[in-house]
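**User:**
If convenient, please work through this fold.
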Amino acid sequence: MIIIGIAGGTGSGKTTVVRKIVESLPDGTVSVIPQDSYYNDQSHLTLAERKKTNFDHPNAFDWTLLSEQIADLKKGIAIEQPTYSYIVNTRLPETIHVEPKEVIIVEGIMALYDKTLRDQMDLKIFVDAGSDERLLRVICRDIAERGHSLDMLIDKYRNVLKPMHDEFIEPTKQYADIIIPNMGNNGPAIDMLRMYIKAVVAEDKYRKSLRDK
């Protein structure tokens, strides 16, 4: 098993990199663990209080649960991944059953932030993109998918996204084994990454076959 962490700012292209990795491997080989599923349970707060949450701050995440569940997967134990609703701003009662797979990908803006989580990873990736490009992607996405106004998004970028990115996300680049530029659209970097993962998976299968003999 290989545990991969994929981090990068909002709109940097993390999802593109994850998709390209998943598409390059056989079906059933990869489990993707979105960090967004591990926002803190806020059911004890009123909806008005929940709406004040800064989702781009490290304190918004349940790092203990995320680290424990990745450790379980690494041991070959299935997990019940939490689910989170941005509508009610808290965790839902439903969970997602996740089986251990040959490749586990932890994807999120701060996937490389927490040392306990980071130390469980075999490969750490940071997807890089310029701030202008990330802003444009966030604007296009949130207007189309979430109905947000342009003025609201610009205000959010200035007061939340940019300062949080500069303080908490950008510094995690130093922990990355690989930095992928151009919003995940760097073909040679993706190809090398795919080849490396396939080689690790093949080696694990070979070692397992030797143990089973």
Summary: The chain has one domain: 2-212. The mean pLDDT is 87. The helical segments are 14-24, 47-50, 63-74, 115-118, 131-146, 150-169, 187-212.
